[in-house]
Amino acid sequence: xxxxxxxxxxxxxxxxxxxxxxxxxxxxxxxxxxxxxxxxxxxxxxxxxxxxxxxxxxxxxxxxxxxxxxxxxxxxxxxxxxxxxxxxxxxxxxxxxxxxxxxxxxxxxxxxxxxxxxxxxxxxxxxxxxxxxxxxxxxxxxxxxxxxxxxxxxxxxxxxxxxxxxxxxxxxxxxxxxxxxxxxxxxxxxxxxxxxxxxxxxxxxxxxxxxxxxxxxxxxxxxxxxxxxxxxxxxxxxxxxxxxxxxxxxxxxxxxxxxxxxxxxxxxxxxxxxxxxxxxxxxxxxxxxxxxxxxxxxxxxxxxxxxxxxxxxxxxxxxxxxxxxxxxx
Length: 329
What we know:
Elements: H1 12-16, H2 18-38, H3 44-69, H4 72-79, H5 89-101, H6 113-123, H7 127-138, H8 149-159, H9 166-185, H10 188-191, H11 194-216, H12 224-249, H13 252-260, H14 264-276, H15 282-285, H16 291-296, H17 300-304, H18 306-311, H19 314-326
Helix pairs in contact: 2-3, 3-11, 6-8, 7-8, 7-9, 11-12
Protein name: DUF4220 domain-containing protein
InterPro entries: DUF4220
Keywords: Membrane, Transmembrane, Transmembrane helix
């Protein structure tokens, strides 16, 4: 089935090996079609193999396409924009001189478009909008590109804003890093495009179609163990497709699109689903050792022996606490 959406590469070097995955896609698809043709019987089971082969090929092709787009060269080409020639100063000065000679009061003023854009970003209360704007700037660093002084000023102005708390600042950075992880190691770059959504709908439809037609077939002539295993595999494939669709709807990229297009009712529903299933971001799910928590909070050993220490003389209680401190309990 081409692997899950949550992982396409385990390291950046895997993205550079997209040609190897393309070769594997061609070879495996060819071998699968050859085996399918050799085992063709004309039965319903043989016909149901066609939608599963198509769905698996689409998902495998999505993975290869994602690896290609996340490779260093392609990623740099996607981020580079057309060169800005800047204002046409000779034409500007000719127009200025002409208007001035005609008796008009003419002045030249500089319009800082970047500052206006940044004011719009900082005025938005949702951290996803701010993180997306910053991500569009700083993702160039992962393609070995150089940022301008204007980009640096935008970042400083955003985080120096008095309205932004420390919690919001860390939340913005966490969303940015999540976007970068999705870009380099998942199918997000393909899934959030129009063609990617069409592919997702097609694979879900074909898998559900195969499961439905398989359930209506007369399966008494087949081995019971084979029928159970095939049915279980199809059910698991459908459940994985539903779960992947759920993650797609509750992701930060989808929330950003809903906020941008002012789909507040759908956004409210997706956030309710996220809170219902306790969908935390990566920074809240990774097991990590907190030095501050260790220093400021009581360890389990103290809570367990708290009442026991009260039964001992004060001097003995201090000795027990010192023993726990030395052994990090």
